[in-house]
Design brief:
Helices cover 30% and strands 28% of the residues. The chain is built from 4 helices and 4 strands.
Length: 162
């Protein structure tokens, strides 16, 4: 691949989310430092979950066209970049049930991303939003047995600059 090409908006956004989450002391140990690629990082994820009883990985998703409304004109240079934040915990630790730990970790991630923009500005429409939160199934991944998780899909509208 030609190294002169710029990273796509989904990859840049995923890295910004990682940097934001890792900047919080209570979350830093859990955050995988690079955008997650399931094809080559499942072992790293399994090790992180085993070592810290939890892990947070951020996976770039394919960019999508934004929902155009009213007088908006479709623009191929405007996309919705989405990152899937994988929040995972191991089974019960001590007296704290898994679901309570997973709930607390999910809430900490959401609080850290609240009222934040990777663009360092206060302009309306530049902040990311939570598109969906769903349960994470790890049943088919042998290295992630006894791991429960959630996926937070966070999106932002991005304009591609030449």
């Amino acid at each position: 691949m030609n190294n002169e090409l710029q990273d796509g908006p989904e990859y840049v956004f995923a890295q910004a989310v990682i940097d934001r989450l890792a900047g919080k002391k209570e979350l830093a140990n859990y955050v995988i430092p690079d955008p997650f690629d399931a094809s080559d990082q499942v072992n790293n994820l399994a090790l992180a979950v085993a070592q810290y009883d939890a892990a947070i990985a951020v996976m770039p998703q394919a960019p999508q066209p934004p929902p155009w409304k009213g007088v908006d004109m479709p623009d191929p240079g405007v996309v919705v970049a989405t990152a899937a934040i994988l929040v995972m915990t191991t089974g019960q630790v001590g007296t704290v049930p898994t679901i309570r730990r997973l709930s607390a970790l999910t809430a900490a991630v959401l609080r850290r991303l609240r009222k934040w923009s990777p663009h360092n500005d206060e302009l309306a429409g530049t902040a990311p939003w939570v598109a969906e939160i769903t349960e994470l199934s790890t049943e088919e991944v042998p290295d992630l047995k006894n791991v429960d998780g959630r996926v937070i899909f966070i999106s932002i509208r991005e304009t591609l600059n030449p």
